[in-house]
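Q: Structure tokens for this one, please.
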Amino acid sequence: MPAPKQYICATCHSMGTPKTATKGSLAIEVLLWLCFLLPGMLYSLWRLTSRHKACPKCGSAEMIPCDTPRGQQLLRMKS
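A: Here is the predicted structure, written as tokens:
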């Protein structure tokens, strides 16, 4: 099995595998579903479409693969 692809954060320059982050609040989503069907559905759709890969250290959405030209530039800046 191949090793996982390495990424570097353009914000804090930490390296690692990005985590999946979802905007919004699960508690609000549940509350909207319990009270109102349409707002709950719209909020759930918004949360699903706003998912992104984020830096596990700072939470930034600027995770770049290390094997790209920009990733190589950030690696040189880090060292």
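A few notes: The chain has two domains: 1-18+55-79, 23-53. Strands lie at 7-9, 15-16, 19-21, 52-54, 63-65.
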